[in-house]
């Protein structure tokens, strides 16, 4: 196997894993809590821009360029996106469920506008270049460079996965699912539905911001065009295909859908003449749109459905009482 | 300040208002925020474009401008076809997607997500068929007539305003004075109860789609006539439509029209201060303000 192929494989997986992080964030919001976010692209963009501003070297004619280490950029990205998610959640979560959807759609539009028009901060339509890449010293050796980047993202996804799985099984996670399934019952038990939903929404937003930062540093360049509504749609397709409510499903869906997407883009590039490619690319979106609707209709659980999680104490209680654990 | 902003705001506002009536009807009767509604505007505009072009090719005399307007008889005839076909498209999407999800008793938010998927599919189909290049109904230039007080308007703009006013009154009368209007209001109050007392719920749902999509087609054709026809016109109008529907109060037709005018005027006046590149943010600011201070809207009832 040639080195180029391995390097490309590592590049592909690294991109897929940045989407997997977005999917994990969406899974906290939608999968666990039932909050509908149509502005994923907005939160990802906030993360990408904040991290780029914090870590790029000082540039003439542009605000920012603090030259901080990459880790600081990633933390700042997560904090900023989480804060915006918290504010928009505080505004809409107590209202009807689809007001949140409309408001997050508005966030994506507003962030897109800011990225385009606040040229002093965001570089306008041309975006920000030279976002520092981790392991830049290895850039001379493509294989080592891609593998090192892949390694970092595998670690980030793994850490997030373990943390979220732990959170899911904690009392906090149980309250979230209780609210999603039966809000009245959860309220009757004294849990503030609004507060728990708001926390979950902010955490999900922060994870999306982190994903945006990771992606920006991996590509090394950001522009408003990267954060079109299309991105929101892709992440939704990934989570729904993989299985909402299931963190492993979120990761699997991200890799699978990104594979289909990259593969069909490659097919279009080789099958259609350059003049017709923009047109053929819109067929690609039609395909994903029809696919999403079909899955909603035919298999709303996705490939890996939600795993039933109950307290680990229940099994012990049942055993000590001498009764078999009843499986639904 | 330029008084011309008043006329621009009223014209844009009446387009937003017509679109928002469809959003508010779907929202109150089918009970979900339809993200695909903007695409009905775009499809209406494109169907009219194709039909008008075909008519002009068959009978070039239809392209001769009528009186002071910029378009010939081909456009009004094409508009009627576009209204009917966009209504048919809405029924088709309902039969293939929303109707089945309703039958599966899916939650509201699944419907919203499905509408999001339908929106992307419909928009990209338009881009595939007609490409992303902007198109125009006519190439004719129009001279704006002075109306006094420093206001100017083209005959097309005045026609659009008049048409929007007639349509709003007609829809309002339909909802308040006719049997189907009463059925629609009954279903919006309580679908189960309405079904129990003999209201034909399926007929009501069909009417909602036909009305909403028909009005969307009119709004889309107006937008195409006064600005241009683009595949992304529906997406760009979506946020103003939602802002107007919520500001007017979900379910209120006069509210949607009034709020549409407010959003349009706010955009036109704000653009004078902050620059045209921020136009799309105005609707977002209005939306946030309504959700903060009066989430039930102008004419809505608190939940």
From TrEMBL, chain A:
Q: How does it sit in the membrane?
A: Multi-pass membrane protein
- State its location(s): Cell membrane
Kindly list the residue ranges recorded as spanning the membrane. Answer: 6-28, 35-54, 66-88, 100-123, 143-164, 200-221, 227-243, 250-272, 278-298
Xref: Pfam families: BPD_transp_2 (PF02653)
GO cellular component, alphabetical, reads:
plasma membrane
Q: Which residues form a coiled coil?
A: none
Q: Supply the alphabetized keyword list.
A: Cell membrane, Membrane, Transmembrane, Transmembrane helix
Q: Output one GO MF annotation.
A: branched-chain amino acid transmembrane transporter activity
**Which PANTHER family does the record cross-reference, listed alphabetically?**
HIGH-AFFINITY BRANCHED-CHAIN AMINO ACID TRANSPORT PROTEIN BRAE, HIGH-AFFINITY BRANCHED-CHAIN AMINO ACID TRANSPORT SYSTEM PERMEASE
- The name under which this protein is listed is Inner-membrane translocator
Its source organism is Mesorhizobium alhagi CCNWXJ12-2
TrEMBL record, chain B:
- Major site of localization recorded for this protein: membrane
Q: How does it sit in the membrane?
A: Multi-pass membrane protein
Q: Output the GO biological process annotations, alphabetical, semicolon-separated.
A: D-alanine transmembrane transport; L-alanine transport; L-isoleucine import across plasma membrane
A GO CC term assigned to this protein in UniProt: plasma membrane
Q: Where are the transmembrane segments?
A: 12-33, 40-59, 71-95, 107-126, 158-175, 208-229, 241-266, 278-299
Asked if the Swiss-Prot or TrEMBL record annotates the protein with the keyword Oxidoreductase, the reply is: no
Name by which UniProt lists this protein: Inner-membrane translocator
Q: Which organism is it from?
A: Mesorhizobium alhagi CCNWXJ12-2
